[in-house]
Amino acid sequence: MKGELIVMYADTKVTAATIYRSGCVVTRKGTVHLPEGRHDLIIRGLSSGAEDMTARLALPESLEGSNVQVRNLTKEEKEEITKETERKIEELDTRIELLTGLAEIWKNNADFTGKESVNLSEMTDYLEKLPERIEKLGLEVRELQLKRADLQKELKEKEQESSRKVMTAQVNVPQEGTYPLEVRYHDAGAYWYPVYEIHTDGETSGLNLRLRAKLREMTGEDWNDVKVSLFTGNPSVSGTIPELNPVHVRFYQPMPRRQNALMGMMAMSMAKTAAVAEEEICDEDAVDYSEEQVEEIEAPTAEVKQGETMTEYELPGLWNLEKGRDVMADLSRETIEAEFHNVIVPKLDAEVFLAAEIKTSSVEHLMNTDADVYLKGTYAGQVHIHPDLTEKTYDISLGRDETVKVKRRQTKNHTSNVLLKGQKKTEYEFETVITSRKDKPCKITVWDQIPVSDDKSIVVESVELSKGVLEEKTGKIRYDFELNPKESKTLVLNYTVAWPKDKQIQEL
User: Fold this and answer.
1) How far apart are the C-alpha atoms of 86 and 347, rounded to whole Å?
2) Does residue 256 lie within any of the structural domains?
């Protein structure tokens, strides 16, 4: 009857997903065959994390839908899903128990003690056939146990299915047919975050900046052949416009100030590149690939679309995302102009760093980002990018360079009295020797420092800087020069500190 409400079921699969930095919008599609009339349509397969208020159903214009709801299955509906599989498992258990019992009976009857009516011929025939019968029963039991294991796996999948939500809608169908449908909803069970890689040869090619995405979905099902887009925004974060609160002006109460003499320029976490010895394995039957040239695979990048409030990366092709497993995707590549030089901060570190000097504007969009560095295809470590936007250039460390050596030693630390001024004065001198072991010229930048006085009665004077450039406010000294192969250069830093002789200064 056309007026009767008939329950119809439809199954869907994930075909597309929009993943935000936290959460995702899932698109599911499917078809359903509907006879003419009014139907209570139940669409199965929604993830258990589907947010009810975000769910939307799309049907062909020829169908009239209403009363769209998202809910969990009832106890009776869950039992209906698993009922048939549970029945089959019970039947197998009964059969396995019967065959196991029959095997025990055959074994027990092999004991002819006290059985006077059995003649020798019957006893011999029974014992000869017993192993074959026991083996046949055992094989049948093992086969049934394998079937039971498959059914247990099927039951687990159906129990997971029964935990998933469904969408219900009332649909009026003017004509019997097979109709497409589409479901969309937001689920918190997915995320992605950017992963940056810097590739360079450290000589002439500049920096190749590669943006990748590490994404994971945890919606409770595997996504197969799914179109994926990544958005830089996060819809779960509040979009409320902040309000300004009053700012009160008060007298400043100074706090004890602690002088920090550390420069902090090279606060990077880099791993030393270890030399790996390759062991050649010879096999006279092995194929020789030594002459064949191979190249690193470069996956196609995403299509970038700039929206009103966020950027979209549309990944090429279709993707398979296994629940709970990380997947890497390439988003974009760009080349940054760079000048390479060796950077040395001998006061803080006896190692030499290979660095790429770039324009700060090239990486201002990467503030507070970690990037993996690859030097000539070899992983060189990880660097934290945190440029000072007030500076025009920024150094990105490419790892430690063992082909340049540095030694720094203190050659003077002499304190004397200045009688006419009532002062004490200490003279400090340091000698730094930089040696190149490279087979070609290299540019060197050395950072050193002299102390900065916060008190007019403490006077710091530079005596010898070896042509270094002094920043008066910070006390930093920069040296820029070039070393030829196997060449050494010595830098001398000499300065004095004078202060009232009745006072004591910090140990420098």
Assistant:
1) 74
2) no
Q: Which two tokens stand for residue 346?
A: 């001998």
**Contacting residues for 55 by C-beta, under 8 A, at least 6 apart:** 46, 68, 70, 167, 183, 184, 185
CA dihedral (6, 11, 17, 22) positive or negative: positive
pTM of the predicted model, to two decimals? 0.69
Q: Give the span between the Cα atoms of 4 and 10, in whole angstroms.
A: 19
Ranges of beta strands (E only) in 297-377 are 303-306, 311-314, 319-321, 327-336, 339-344, 352-359, 369-375
Q: Is residue 326 part of a domain?
A: no
**pLDDT tens digit string along 435-460?**
999 999 999 999 999 999 888 889 99
Which 3 state secondary structure label does DSSP give 53?
helix
Whether residue 25 sits in one domain with residue 139: no
Question: Using CA atoms, how far apart are residues 430 and 447, in angstroms rounded to an integer?
Answer: 13
Q: How far apart are CA 331 and CA 366, in angstroms?
A: 15
Q: Is residue 173 part of a domain?
A: yes
**Residue 355 sits in the same domain as residue 487:** yes
Query: Which DSSP letter does residue 241 get?
Result: P
- The answer on 421 and 442 residing in a single domain is yes
Cβ(169)–Cβ(69) under 8 Å?
A: yes
